[in-house]
Amino acid sequence: MRMQALVIRERILGPAHPDTSYYIRYRGAVYADSGKFERCIELWNYALDMQQSMLEPLNTMTQSSLFSFIELFSFMVAGADPTCKDNDGNTALHLTAISYPWRTDLATILLCGGAHLDTVNNDGHTYESLLDDKIRFMTLNPIKYTTLMCLAARAIRKNNNYIDINRVPVHLRDFVLQH
Ligand SMILES: [Zn+2]
């Protein structure tokens, strides 16, 4: 019944109308609140695809959808071990990239424990850029550890000429700045 209302709204208002994606996202949030994350992600992905096909890149509505994704995923992984950094902003994973001999097993353990391949250190280097060896990097199966949450944060950082970090909700800023 509620899904039908969403479909009817989309048909009448059209996919470009802000109310259309607003109500799809709202319905998704209701699912997330009741623990039905898969259903929520499905609906939000649908709204995001719709926005990306109808609106110019990084339109404020699309940005707002990306923020919602980060928020949802942060909530889902709450409780995971935080990744500590040294004074140079290096995580343990960064250090495995520059240590000799190179240890795949160590990197894999850190990744499974919640380390990010795309965390940047104070010089803006990621694990990949420090490792500087595409073949070794690919043996880690990086896609497995690449999340939508990371991609959204990277997109925001990559476009930092156009997106002011102050527009990112306060509780998400640290996460975005890690990328
Ligand atoms: Zn990440």
TrEMBL record:
ANK repeats lie at residues 88-122. The keyword Nucleotide-binding does not apply. PROSITE patterns: ANK_REPEAT (PS50088). SUPFAM superfamilies: Ankyrin repeat (SSF48403), TPR-like (SSF48452). InterPro entries: Ankyrin_rpt, Ankyrin_rpt-contain_sf, TPR-like_helical_dom_sf. It holds the Pfam family Ank. Keywords: ANK repeat. It comes from the Eukaryota. This is Similar to fem1c: Protein fem-1 homolog C (Danio rerio).
